[in-house]
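Figure 6 in text form: structure in, sequence out.
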């Protein structure tokens, strides 16, 4: 669906190009980030928008992880997933809190993609780099299963490398708010999340 939206937009605007996001390394919410976490929750534009609402989280970066291809791109990503790298201040928010938040903003019961986006690249994954992160991720997954009373298919994946996505994907929800809103609404993401999680 996201590829279709991009193609439709390109057709509508003719020779105009999608707005390129400018790099922004400044932390948000006045916090100093000293740790990062990586999550795959389908469309990385939506994950950026969701995580950047949190206190203690800085400028979230869209990218690719989980595959073996070197220098993946949006068009050629091998077995990589669309992911976000979340910089955060552990004195404000913990990895476990981020993991809990992550589960409540995806459909962890869908093993074939997320919402209208289908295929391996859009499947979910919770990445960890340390034993402590693995334990926290596992606890968050068990909690999600208990709340939903169903088996969660989201795998826990050891992070090997994060690859930053192309510039036009960064901060897309800010630089292209109308196109982003059209995509998010038409994809049914928020409706499905509310159906699954309600007020949890």
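Output sequence:
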């Amino acid at each position: 669906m996201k590829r279709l939206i991009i193609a439709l937009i390109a057709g509508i605007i003719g020779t105009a190009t999608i707005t390129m996001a400018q790099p922004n390394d400044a932390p948000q919410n006045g916090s100093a980030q000293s740790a990062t976490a990586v999550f795959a929750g389908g469309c990385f534009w939506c994950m950026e928008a969701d995580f950047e609402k949190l206190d203690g989280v800085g400028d979230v970066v869209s990218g690719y992880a989980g595959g073996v291809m070197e220098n993946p791109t949006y068009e050629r990503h091998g077995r990589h997933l669309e992911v976000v790298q979340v910089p955060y201040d552990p004195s404000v928010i913990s990895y476990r809190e981020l993991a809990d938040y992550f589960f409540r903003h995806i459909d962890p019961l869908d093993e074939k993609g997320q919402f209208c986006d289908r295929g391996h690249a859009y499947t979910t994954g919770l990445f960890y780099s340390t034993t402590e992160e693995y334990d926290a991720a596992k606890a968050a997954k068990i909690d999600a299963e208990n709340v939903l009373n169903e088996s969660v298919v989201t795998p826990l994946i050891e992070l090997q490398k994060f690859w930053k996505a192309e510039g036009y994907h960064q901060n897309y929800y800010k630089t292209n708010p109308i196109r982003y809103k059209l995509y998010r609404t038409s994809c049914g993401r928020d409706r499905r999340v509310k159906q699954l999680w309600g007020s949890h």
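Caption detail: Residues 6-31 have pLDDT under 50 and may be disordered.
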